[in-house]
Specification:
By secondary structure, this protein is an alpha/beta fold. Helices cover 41% and strands 18% of the residues. It has an eight-stranded parallel β-sheet with strand order 8-7-6-5-4-3-10-9. Strands 11-12-13-14-15 form a five-stranded mixed β-sheet, with helices on both faces. It has a two-stranded antiparallel ribbon with strand order 1-2. Helix 7 packs parallel to helix 8. It is globular.
């Protein structure tokens, strides 16, 4: 894995982002109506329980902006206001105490209005995320122009993808990635001209190749932390896969300081998937890592049932344990020995390993409870150390 990109450090409501040694932060966004304070707070509390570290809410109108006051009072993680089209909503959100803003340069393109928001954020000492999104890029050749937003007519949808440009053999062709980068740099320049550098940037598209290349290019051009995401990635199943591929490539490159897995499903699934992506690359330790064989004709125990039971049991555990659930003598003993706690089933019984050492042999009927005893004991030991 590449060495992590070092950036300017910013702080969102006490959470440090970027810099040299800060962890990659997992974010989400509420899916309910921000104007419903009670429901929004309940959703955020559920996200907090899953480990969400920063939350973003949509602010489509002034009623939603006013609701931020009540929401902010009742949650424990930083609150970001997501603003599109109307800069007055950004100004109201700042007055109402948000910890950061997300501005879309494709939807607020009047430089005077952007400057007004930046000056207000500067006085309030809160950062701004410049959120570039393929679905709402400004017209080609009209970045910063406030009229003419029909994307097909104005060329955005007609821009070639990176793959199409490479296939054409024309090294000078202007691509979607070029337009995304140019859009980001336009707004960055406005902020920097106002001596404002509390900046975070995202470069999202549905297409993995477009997203990856946009982030790679911008990472070479600016010193600011980057928020990673694949936009409109899909349902929990397909979106998790697409996000894992796209975010995984960038994280492996050393790029990325915060992430959000955008899913058409419960917002808590975004947080769970985000942490699993980071855990798979050894970038965050949060809760157990469960190793389980996929089962096959060699399995002598019901591995699928056992793994599901173990996963349910360890859901509430915060200790970063590696637990292996294996079903036969081929890979079972080796994987089980390599884990903090492991079980290798076979012939109506199971061997339980703890820190690579055989701890006990139990009958199949007792293996779940025996394994859980070892998990509890190991967790207690690690808590003392």
């Amino acid at each position: 894995m590449a060495k992590r990109r070092i950036t300017k450090q910013i702080t969102v409501g006490g959470v440090k982002i970027g810099g040299r040694d800060n962890p990659i932060i997992v974010q989400s966004m509420t899916i309910g109506d921000t104007r419903d304070v009670a429901a929004t707070v309940a959703e955020i509390k559920g996200l907090e329980d899953e480990g969400c570290e920063i939350i973003r809410v949509a602010v489509p109108d002034m009623e939603a902006a006013d609701a931020l006051i009540g929401i902010k009072r009742k949650i424990n993680i930083p609150l970001i206001a997501d603003i599109h089209f109307h800069h007055e909503l950004a100004l109201a959100s700042i007055r109402n105490g948000v910890d950061a803003l997300r501005l879309n340069p494709g939807n607020i393109r009047d430089e005077s209005k952007v400057r007004e928001v930046v000056e207000s954020a500067k006085k309030a000492h809160i950062p701004i995320r410049i959120g570039v999104n393929f679905g709402s890029l400004p017209p080609v050749g009209k970045i910063g122009v406030t009229r003419g937003i029909r994307r097909v007519v104005d060329g955005v949808n007609e821009l070639p993808t990176l793959a199409e440009a490479q296939a054409s053999g024309d090294d000078d062709v202007y691509t979607v990635v070029d337009h995304m980068v140019a859009t980001a740099l336009w707004e960055i320049s406005i902020l920097e001209d106002l001596d404002f550098d509390e900046i975070k940037i995202s470069m999202k598209a549905f297409d993995v190749e477009t997203t990856v290349e946009a982030y790679r290019r911008l990472a070479r051009l600016v010193p600011y932390p980057l928020h990673l995401g694949i936009t409109e990635s899909g349902t929990v199943t397909t979106g998790s896969i697409r996000s894992a591929v796209g975010l995984g490539i960038l994280l492996y490159d050393g790029i990325g300081d915060t992430i959000r897995v955008s899913l058409a499903g419960p917002s808590t699934e975004e947080v769970k998937t985000g942490f699993e992506i980071l855990k798979s690359l050894n970038l965050r330790d949060k809760g157990p890592i469960l190793v389980a064989c996929p089962s096959c004709g060699r399995a002598d125990v019901d591995v699928l049932k056992l793994a599901a039971s173990v996963e349910k049991f360890v859901k509430e555990i915060e200790t970063p344990l590696k637990i292996a659930v294996m079903g036969c003598e081929v890979n079972g003993p080796g994987e089980a020995k390599d884990a903090d706690i492991g079980i290798a089933g076979g012939n109506g019984r199971a061997i339980i390993f703890r820190k690579g050492v055989k701890a006990k042999i139990v009958p199949e009927s007792e293996m779940l409870e025996a394994l859980m005893e070892e998990v509890r004991a190991t967790e207690a030991e690690m808590a003392k150390s």
